[in-house]
Inverse folding.
């Protein structure tokens, strides 16, 4: 878990990209939320790859069972996953299709959430954009957890 400050917001970034199947991912999300009950918002960052679209769709279906404040889609073919999420009744107001994104751009988007402290969890694929995001927060970590 990497801690990062941006403007007046604290971000706790959880690297859960390796927990790639829906059951393990849901377990990790719920476990970390129990460790951070004081955070004001939960943001999910779903990293997609063109060769793993089926897995991304499975994770979208799993998210229907998870309480979160916002979903950021990053990586490849995010427009496909965005449409899939809407077709499966995820709230459009809670989804941002970022496409391939830098850590700074993702952070700037997340700090717009109305929260002073955000628990941000990276799920899906570490390959591609997921790895870029992990490196961004790793380099800017201000507290070892």
């Amino acid at each position: 878990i990497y801690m990062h400050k941006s403007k007046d917001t604290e971000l706790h970034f959880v690297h859960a990209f390796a927990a790639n199947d829906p059951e393990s991912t849901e377990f990790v999300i719920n476990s970390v939320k129990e460790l951070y009950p004081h955070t004001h918002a939960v943001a999910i960052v779903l990293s997609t790859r063109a060769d793993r679209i089926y897995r991304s769709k499975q994770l979208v279906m799993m998210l229907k069972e998870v309480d979160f404040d916002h979903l950021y889609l990053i990586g490849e073919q995010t427009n496909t996953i965005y449409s899939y999420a809407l077709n499966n009744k995820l709230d459009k107001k809670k989804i941002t299709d970022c496409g391939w994104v830098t850590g700074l751009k993702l952070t700037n988007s997340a700090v717009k959430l109305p929260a002073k402290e955000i628990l941000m969890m990276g799920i899906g694929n570490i390959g591609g954009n997921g790895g870029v995001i992990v490196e961004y927060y790793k380099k800017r970590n201000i507290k070892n957890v």
